[in-house]
C-alpha cells in the first residue's frame, strides 16, 4: 500500500500541497483528479522522492521510500524520456540493460498489444503511439506499483481506448496503479478509487463502485457535486 499522510509542499511562497492524505492499494487503480496546476504531478514526484516535501509522510508498504522501494515502484511521466533518434527496439534494449526488473516477455506482448513496430523511431511516432511506447516501457518492469502522469492526455480516441484496454488486461495484473487526470469521461469504468483534489487538499476520496451501487452516482456526478457547489 502507498500511504500519503498530511503532505505539504511549497514552491517558493506558493503552497501547492496543504496537507494531502490518501492511500492507494495494490490490485487497484487509484485516480488523482483535479484541474491543471492543482498539484497532481507534484504528488507523484513526492511519492518517488523526486521532490522534497515540507512536512508529512509517505510510506510504501510501511516504509519510507528507500533504495529497495525503487525496485518495486516506477513513475511513467507524461512525456517520453527516450532520445528522439532511438528506435522503439533500442529504447526497450536500453531499459533491459538498465533495469533488473525488465520483463522481456511482457514487453514483447505489450508491443503486440499496442501494434507497435520495434524499428520505428521515437521522433517519427504519433502522439498516441508515443504515449503507448512510454506506457510499454513502464509496464514491462516487474514492479508492484506504477505511477502514471496523465496517460490519456492529448491523444486520439482510438489510442485512448487501446490504452484503456491495457488496464483491464493481465498486463497490469494485480499491481497498484496511481494515475492522474483532469478528464475522467472515458476512463471512469477502469478506476477503483477516486481522489478529488482542490486547493491543495483532498476534498473527497471514494470507491467508484461503491458510490455507483449505493448512491447510483457516477464519478462525474460526484465531481459535479464537489466542484460545482
Ligand atoms: N519546480 C517547480 N517550481 C516552481 N513551481 C512549481 C514547480 N513544479 C510545479 N510547480 C507549481 O506547482 C503547481 C502544481 O503543479 P503540478 O504540475 O503538480 O500540477 P498538476 O496538477 O500536475 O497540473 P497539470 O494537470 O497541468 O499537469 C503549479 O502551480 C506549478 O506551477
TrEMBL record:
<dbReference type="InterPro" id="IPR003593">
    <property type="entry name" value="AAA+_ATPase"/>
</dbReference>
<protein>
    <submittedName>
        <fullName>ABC-2 type transport system ATP-binding protein</fullName>
    </submittedName>
</protein>
<keyword id="KW-0067">ATP-binding</keyword>
<dbReference type="InterPro" id="IPR003439">
    <property type="entry name" value="ABC_transporter-like_ATP-bd"/>
</dbReference>
<dbReference type="Pfam" id="PF00005">
    <property type="entry name" value="ABC_tran"/>
</dbReference>
<feature type="domain" description="ABC transporter">
    <location>
        <begin position="2"/>
        <end position="224"/>
    </location>
</feature>
<dbReference type="InterPro" id="IPR051782">
    <property type="entry name" value="ABC_Transporter_VariousFunc"/>
</dbReference>
<dbReference type="GO" id="GO:0005524">
    <property type="term" value="F:ATP binding"/>
</dbReference>
<keyword id="KW-0547">Nucleotide-binding</keyword>
<dbReference type="InterPro" id="IPR027417">
    <property type="entry name" value="P-loop_NTPase"/>
</dbReference>
<dbReference type="GO" id="GO:0016887">
    <property type="term" value="F:ATP hydrolysis activity"/>
</dbReference>
<keyword id="KW-0813">Transport</keyword>
Amino acid at each position: 500500500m502507498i500511504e500519503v499522510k498530511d503532505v505539504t509542499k511549497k514552491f517558493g511562497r506558493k503552497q501547492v500541497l496543504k496537507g494531502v492524505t490518501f492511500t492507494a492499494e495494490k490490485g487497484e487503480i487509484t485516480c488523482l483528479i483535479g484541474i491543471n496546476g492543482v498539484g497532481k504531478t507534484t504528488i507523484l514526484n513526492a511519492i518517488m522522492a523526486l521532490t522534497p516535501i515540507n512536512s508529512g509522510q509517505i510510506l510504501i508498504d510501511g516504509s519510507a521510500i528507500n533504495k529497495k522501494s525503487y525496485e518495486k515502484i516506477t513513475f511513467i511521466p507524461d512525456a517520453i524520456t527516450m532520445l528522439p533518434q532511438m528506435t522503439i527496439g533500442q529504447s526497450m534494449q536500453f531499459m533491459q540493460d538498465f533495469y533488473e526488473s525488465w520483463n522481456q516477455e511482457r514487453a514483447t506482448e505489450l508491443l503486440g498489444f499496442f501494434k507497435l513496430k520495434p524499428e520505428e523511431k521515437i521522433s517519427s511516432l504519433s502522439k498516441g503511439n508515443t504515449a503507448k511506447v512510454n506506457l510499454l516501457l513502464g509496464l514491462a518492469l516487474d514492479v508492484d506499483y506504477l505511477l502514471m502522469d496523465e496517460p490519456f492526455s492529448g491523444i486520439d480516441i482510438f489510442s485512448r481506448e487501446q490504452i484503456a484496454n491495457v488496464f483491464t488486461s493481465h498486463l497490469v495484473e494485480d499491481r497498484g496503479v496511481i494515475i492522474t487526470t483532469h478528464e475522467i469521461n472515458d476512463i471512469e469504468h477502469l478506476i477503483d478509487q477516486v481522489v478529488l483534489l482542490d486547493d491543495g487538499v483532498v476534498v473527497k476520496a471514494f470507491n467508484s463502485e461503491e458510490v455507483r451501487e449505493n448512491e447510483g452516482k457516477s464519478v462525474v456526478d460526484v465531481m459535479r457535486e464537489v466542484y460545482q457547489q
